[in-house]
Design a protein that fits this description.
This protein folds into 2 domains: 219 residues, Glycogen Phosphorylase B (Rossmann fold); 156 residues, Glycogen Phosphorylase B (Rossmann fold, 3-Layer(aba) Sandwich). The strands form 3 sheets. The chain has a 6-stranded parallel beta sheet with strand order 2-1-3-4-7-8, sandwiched between helices. The protein has a 6-stranded parallel beta sheet with strand order 11-10-9-12-13-14, with helices on both faces. A two-stranded antiparallel sheet has the order 5-6. The two termini are 15 Å apart. With 387 residues, it is of the alpha/beta class. The model has no long low-confidence stretch (mean pLDDT 94). It is built from 16 helices and 14 strands. α9 packs across α14 and α12 crosses α15.
Length: 387
């Protein structure tokens, strides 16, 4: 099968970029033919920023680039990931004109929330999910704290709701969990159920590390930002002095360093490469994911399951669908540092050998490359048959 991946790269690489690369490698490893068409927001500067006010709605240049790519590669299916801003929805219209089916992975809630996370002021927010042109997001400057940028994004997604782009120009949407699927089904997108299919992320097998070889620390890996809940973890150390190691960078790095300076139980490693992170995962008692927002599907969580590392998560919806309480990890009350401290103390006092085995089994039954390839090909074949 010939698959064309389309992805609009972000200014700073993240989980979406990794997912695109992982899926390409996976498909090629099974003998599929994959080519990519990338767009890049980092090249938007000067007067181009003004042009993006309308090009983000329909970028003719992007549709021409796609037409040329289709002509040379002749794909059986197109798989898009991010298409804001340079790619624009014009790529969906061009694909339809060329009669190439389109599958689109939704990594976040951008189509129904300008902030993409259904989060405002550190709390979940769903004010905009059912409105075609939601004013609330503009009022609260939910995208990059800018009224203009939020209005632009809101108008782009809204006009294409009215035009029926999301409903008629995309053959299948991929979501990671049932929770996300239901949020989208009940939203202003008004998508039919058959348009949405669940396919989780996946990671390569990192190798199981049994509980007996673990060291005495808990691990946080990720962006040091409010929505990721790093502040919750730091405050938990005020209630219980547990050994904590932190890997990552972000806006709240000064806060992390301040805690490190006054607490010898906390070690901060800064930004690190994948090999370093993997070594720490395999030795940790557990990974902590304290997010206060609806997560997509963190690759770090799947990597931990691969190594047999249990995960302690906030009990917020979606995350609580990925980690089963008292099976492959523990839940604590979202945003509650004291409850997190209590759960960590509880973890330390008990022998949870089965947590490690269950974490590994979760990976083997849900998140392996082999399982993911099968699901992905079934999705592609289903849209090709309808052409």
């Amino acid at each position: 099968m010939k698959i064309l991946q389309i992805h609009n790269q972000y200014l700073h690489k993240g989980g979406e970029d990794s997912t695109v690369a992982n899926e390409k490698d996976l498909l090629i490893s099974y003998g599929e033919h994959v080519e990519q068409l990338f767009f890049d927001n980092s090249k938007i500067s000067g007067f181009e920023k003004v042009k993006m006010l309308y090009k983000s709605i329909y970028n003719r240049n992007s549709s021409i680039l796609l037409r040329e790519k289709i002509s040379s590669f002749k794909p059986d299916v197109i798989h898009t990931h991010n298409f804001f801003y340079v790619a624009s929805p014009s790529i969906f219209y061009e694909a339809k004109r060329q009669q190439i089916p389109v599958v689109s992975t939704l990594h976040n809630f951008r189509l129904i929330c300008s902030g993409s996370l259904l989060l405002r002021d550190g709390k979940t927010c769903e004010l905009c999910t059912k409105a075609k042109f939601p004013i609330a997001g503009i009022k609260h400057k939910c995208f990059q704290d800018s009224t203009l940028k939020t209005a632009q994004l809101t108008f782009t997604t809204g006009i294409h709701k009215v035009l029926g782009t999301w409903k008629n120009k995309i053959d299948k949407f991929i979501t990671f969990t049932e929770f996300t699927k239901q949020k989208l089904l009940k939203s202003s997108l008004q998508l039919p159920s058959e348009k949405l299919v669940i396919k989780p992320n996946f990671v390569s097998d990192m190798g199981f590390e049994p509980s007996g070889s673990r060291k005495n620390y808990f691990l946080y890996v990720g962006r040091l930002s409010q929505e990721k809940g790093i502040e919750v973890v730091l405050k938990a150390t005020n209630h219980h002095k547990f050994p904590l190691e932190i890997i990552g960078s972000g806006d709240l790095e000064p806060m992390v360093k301040e805690y490190v300076s006054s607490n010898p139980h906390i070690t901060y490693h800064g930004f690190q490469n994948k090999d370093f992170i993997l070594e720490k995962m395999k030795a940790a008692k557990a990974l902590i994911i304290p997010s206060v927002c609806y997560e997509g599907m963190p690759l770090a969580l799947l990597e931990c399951f691969s190594t047999g590392t249990p995960v302690i998560i906030s009990d917020i919806d979606n995350l609580n669908e990925m980690v089963t309480n008292h099976q492959n990890g523990l839940h604590f009350k979202t945003g509650d540092a004291e409850d997190l401290a209590i759960k960590i103390a509880y973890f330390e006092k008990n022998d949870f050998k089965h947590f490690y085995e269950n974490a590994r089994n979760t990976y083997l039954t849900k998140y392996t490359p082999e399982i993911n390839y099968k699901i992905l090909m079934e999705i592609y074949q289903s849209v090709i048959k309808k052409q």
